[in-house]
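Researcher: Please predict.
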Amino acid sequence: MNPFLRSGLLFGAIGLAALAQEPAKAPVEGTLINYLDRNSKEVGPQVARLTQEVFLLKTELIVLNFRQEYGDRIKMERVMFAANTSDKVAVPGYVFTPVGLAAGKKLPGLVMVHGGNHIQLTASWFPWIAEAVRRGYVVIYPEYRGSSGHEETIYENSYGVTDLADVLAAAAYFSKKDFVDPARLGIFGHSRGGMLTVRAIETEPKRFQAAVEIAGVMDLVAFMSYKTDARRQDMASQKAFGGKLPNQNLGAYIGVSPAFFVEKIETPLLLLSTTGDASVPYQLHGKRVIESLKAYGKTYDEHLYELAPGGHEYLFADTAEARDSMKRTFDWFGKFLKP
């Protein structure tokens, strides 16, 4: 890892009812945003402001690191695209294209979706992005709302709502680029990104021609049953869940869970998981969706690794399982997107 990046790193959640939930209301003239107080003498606001500053620093270090390592062959463009919600947020992201891409040439596109709670682009994703470009794809990596590194508006979480909206907005934006073939669009995600990947192909079944999810969160009801109290309360506090746990607002958690809408899927889907995943156990998440895909007669494939090193994060390790996972992913995309 780049030493500057290492130094920077040291510095530092709708239901059946919610499916009909109205998007955020557009602000009327005179509505203001209460940003974090940069001059507060109180410890809480100071820590919150410092946290955002550290995330911003991390963003700059990540960009510098990528450009230093891959800039001779991959162009990294920082973009701001329009959200498809009525609040008119501009969502940040990155577009990756080969250096020297000929004008007018259209390539298949991949939407890569990170996971985590307040996570952002990290060096762990660099090999996946580089491999995609090497194989003839262009990539968009959206920093959906709930991500870090882009100030308070993007940092605010609404698990399964604004994050999904932003991923779909990224796909729509990307599809209009003159170097993207919208008839050859794929989506790929890990963990929360896997959840968003499957919800995306359930929500817009005609948008994508292939999808891959790795260790994705498929059932938020199950997810909330085994997480720590702090994590459960953090999730419940988000607007979509109204401060309520599943026993008080079950529909909201069902509504964002891919496991309950498999019948809507038309996109060919590859699912990759490992046993021993302590964050997203296979039996509760991947296995259930695979069984549903089979029951509904969907086009899919799956592979389960046995105790892959790294557990939930196994795809980012330098191991045989991670390399096989990458190969299976791009073989799947290649079959349907034909770069």
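Model: The first helix runs from residue 3 to 10.
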